[in-house]
Each structure stands twice: as C-alpha cells, then as structure tokens.
Write a structure and sequence with these properties.
By secondary structure, this protein is mostly helical. The chain is 74% helix and 0% strand. It is built from 2 helices and no strands.
C-alpha cells in the first residue's frame, strides 16, 4: 500500500468529484437497457461508495450524500 499525503481540502474535493460522477452514473444505470452495463455500473458505484468511506475515515467527516 502506498501513502498519498492529502490535505482535508483535497480529500473533500475528491469526494465532491466522486459524488457528482456517481450521480451521473446512477442516471445511466436507470436508463440503460443493457444488463451487463447496468451490472458493471452498479459494481462501480459500490467501489465509489467504499472509496468515499475510506476518505471519510481520514477526515472524520461524512461527505457522501448517498
């Protein structure tokens, strides 16, 4: 594992970007007819949620608007 030194502000920015991307992805999940694409995107969403939770553990503040 590699340590990447980030400030709280940088972590919040990453969380913000992930949240905005995730919201667009949820729209895509809802509007796709492809089961494979939907499953892929849902798995990706789970990964984003896990990543945001890890980032929250560094700041101590929840930023995810899930």
């Amino acid at each position: 594992m590699v340590d990447v030194p980030l400030s709280d502000r940088e972590i919040e920015l990453i969380q913000y970007v992930i949240d905005r991307y995730r919201k667009a992805m949820l729209f895509e999940i809802a509007n796709t007819d492809s089961r494979d694409l939907r499953a892929y995107l849902q798995d990706r969403e789970d990964q984003f949620i896990a990543l945001v939770e890890k980032l929250e553990s560094f700041t101590g503040r929840p930023e995810f608007s899930g």
